[in-house]
Every structure is written in structure tokens, then in C-alpha cells.
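Dear colleague,

Thank you for sharing your sequence with our group. We've completed the structure prediction you requested, and as agreed, I am returning the results in plain text so they can be pasted directly into your records. Please verify that the sequence below matches your submission; if there's any discrepancy, let me know and we will rerun it promptly.
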Amino acid sequence: MTVGTEPSMTDEIRRVVAEHARLSVPMAEVADDDDLYVAGMTSHASVSMLIALEEAFEVEFTEDLLLQSTFQSVNAIAAAVKGLLEDKKAAELGPRP
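Please find the predicted C-alpha cells below.
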């Protein structure tokens, strides 16, 4: 894939939300800081979305992130995924001398 053609993290999160959150409004009408639960997402749909996010970003949500607030908005999800990716990268690099 050519640099610049990869979807941004936010674009990928929005794709996953659109496919799995079962919102009652079109994703195009949802801003990144809008409450996804107010937009119609149920706790059951959030679990489906969590699994899809883990697959999309090759991360595993830690127990401390399994909160409604983590999945409340695209921005909240992006913050959580960014932290998980940073932790994953740090773990792959190993301890520093």
C-alpha cells in the first residue's frame, strides 16, 4: 500500500463503529465526540464492536479499559487504541538499558 492511502486510525474506528455498533443514526451524522450510546449503541453491540476493534488494530483491551466510557465516542476509542498500540510497541522493543 502506498504511503498516504492507508486509512487513519479515526477512519478505521469509524468503519468498525459503523459496522458493529448498530447505531440508530447513520455514522455520517455522528461526530467524533458524540456519545455512541445516545446514538443508539447497546452494551451488547459495544462487545461486538470491541472484538472488531481488537481484530482491526491487533490489540487486546485490558481489563481496566472495559468501561462504558472507553467506548462512549470515537475520540474515546481512539485514545484507548492509541495507548494500547503504544504499550504494544514498547513491549516489542523490550526494556531499555
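Summary note from our side: The helical segments are 9-20, 43-57, 74-93.

Kind regards,
the structure core
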